[in-house]
């Protein structure tokens, strides 16, 4: 198969119903200083070879090679949609003038966190826009903020694990988190609590931008509730009681953990999504005020839907 053509065994709708090459990306205003935008796409809803090939056209040669290096149609499609979501999401924002998705250039920080290389983008000026992406085989999400670093993670609620939950917790989680999980006798509830904690911990590490070696999971504890020493166990609280998520990091003399804020969501009824952003100290007014969240479901170049306040987005805790 030629590298420039993307073919998969798909149950396709007629392409004419979904995609026109002239369909523009709807422009979106930049997030406010205290706002997070979350975009997500469900791979099973993206259908049609012509649309997938259009996505291939906006990728860099390196990104294309990465897509075709994946084994299996599902993995290739997931890799393609992840890069497409990043490019089309960032290109929507009126940062300078009109930005084409294919014009965007990316680089990695010293610890490997992807970021836009504004200096090498055609007709672009540096922007304080931050983004982060996370994907499973069944949902891909991209978070966007201004001035504030962001980390996100998504996991399927029914995600299976190769080992016993407590075995994994002993390997990756802090002692307080392990103790709380071990005290949960219901296997299903224990599994759900494990996934929630995992998404929050991964979002925090990604927001820090240090890489997993720079902030191992065992070196900090995620807690739910407003009091110091509160339990990491979310399900003991109602939605209103568990209004805060905090992090205790061992050996943190600068107390930088207080600079971060979290939100835990149930997304599309099937996934948990965790968002971690740094509090924007450049904004005026109440610096510790709540962060606003706007969630959009998309099929790039086809349709966008704001799903904030709908059944597709259930806020469990945070912000």
From TrEMBL:
<dbReference type="Pfam" id="PF22624">
    <property type="entry name" value="AASDHPPT_N"/>
</dbReference>
<feature type="domain" description="4'-phosphopantetheinyl transferase">
    <location>
        <begin position="149"/>
        <end position="231"/>
    </location>
</feature>
<dbReference type="GO" id="GO:0019878">
    <property type="term" value="P:lysine biosynthetic process via aminoadipic acid"/>
</dbReference>
<keyword id="KW-0808">Transferase</keyword>
<protein>
    <recommendedName>
        <fullName>holo-[acyl-carrier-protein] synthase</fullName>
        <ecNumber>2.7.8.7</ecNumber>
    </recommendedName>
</protein>
<dbReference type="GO" id="GO:0008897">
    <property type="term" value="F:holo-[acyl-carrier-protein] synthase activity"/>
</dbReference>
<dbReference type="InterPro" id="IPR037143">
    <property type="entry name" value="4-PPantetheinyl_Trfase_dom_sf"/>
</dbReference>
<dbReference type="GO" id="GO:0000287">
    <property type="term" value="F:magnesium ion binding"/>
</dbReference>
<dbReference type="InterPro" id="IPR008278">
    <property type="entry name" value="4-PPantetheinyl_Trfase_dom"/>
</dbReference>
<feature type="domain" description="4'-phosphopantetheinyl transferase N-terminal">
    <location>
        <begin position="53"/>
        <end position="141"/>
    </location>
</feature>
<dbReference type="InterPro" id="IPR050559">
    <property type="entry name" value="P-Pant_transferase_sf"/>
</dbReference>
<dbReference type="Pfam" id="PF01648">
    <property type="entry name" value="ACPS"/>
</dbReference>
<dbReference type="GO" id="GO:0005829">
    <property type="term" value="C:cytosol"/>
</dbReference>
<dbReference type="InterPro" id="IPR055066">
    <property type="entry name" value="AASDHPPT_N"/>
</dbReference>
